[in-house]
Design brief:
There is one protein chain. The radius of gyration is 16 Å and the shape is globular. The protein folds into 2 domains: 1-43, no CATH class; 45-192, no CATH class. The longest helix is centred in the middle third of the chain and has 18 residues, at 92-109. It is built from 7 helices and 6 strands, in the order ααβαββαβααββα. It has 193 residues and is α/β, with parallel strands linked by helices. A 4-stranded mixed beta sheet has the order 1-4-2-5. Strands 3-6 form a two-stranded parallel ribbon. Its cofactor is Mg(2+); Ca(2+); Mn(2+). This is Dolichol-phosphate mannosyltransferase subunit 1.
Length: 193
């Protein structure tokens, strides 16, 4: 709804369909199914997940690759809450919700990663396939479950501090329903891990 697809189509016209591959779906069907959809077309051994609206800046990708290579990590996650990571453009309410969600999750689940709700990540393709199959959550809590399941299965996780910049166009999908789903998901993970 924020026009990202139209911009991607323009980029495809410039750079060619062999470099910009678009596989749109008819409607929003959830993040997990989007990952599955995208994995069908991924040809490499690694997959980088990031927001297409550039809230996740591509300048961090070389750091993700370097971090992965440094210790052969299975997952490298961008973190807004360690090192010189941070957030720009969020109001106080959104910062409190994000920090609060991470704090409660850290307290209850002890995941060993500092930013559980972010989605800027590098995965070994086989690891991502395994994790997506293991996860049952939808929406906001899906990212958290991916890290929890990775730790549960003994996958190694590295982190790279990132600066997250709030989107200029469109709106956040974070609302009251997502917060309720997060709490339900958190309790489910607490009970099952």
């Amino acid at each position: 709804p924020d026009g990202t697809l139209a911009v991607a189509q323009q980029l495809q016209d410039i750079y060619g369909s062999e470099r910009i591959v678009l596989k749109p779906r008819a409607k929003k069907l959830g993040l997990g199914t989007a990952y599955i959809h995208g994995m069908q077309y991924a040809t490499g051994n690694f997959i980088i997940i990031m927001d297409a609206d550039l809230s996740h800046h591509p300048k961090f990708i070389p750091q993700f690759i370097q971090r992965q290579k440094s210790r052969n990590f299975d997952v490298v996650s961008g973190t807004r809450y360690a090192g010189d990571g941070g957030v720009n453009g969020w109001d106080l309410k959104r910062k409190v919700i994000s920090r609060g969600a991470n704090f409660v999750t850290q307290t209850l689940l002890r995941p060993g990663a500092s930013d559980l709700t972010g989605s800027f990540r590098l995965y070994k393709k086989q690891v991502l396939e395994t994790l997506v199959k293991a996860c049952t959550s939808k929406g906001y809590v899906f990212q958290m479950e991916m890290i929890i399941r990775a730790r549960q299965r003994g996958f190694s996780i590295g982190e790279v501090p990132i600066s997250f910049v709030d989107r200029v166009y469109g709106e956040s999908k974070l609302g009251g329903n997502e917060i309720v789903q997060f709490v339900k998901g958190l309790l489910y993970l607490f009970a099952t891990t």
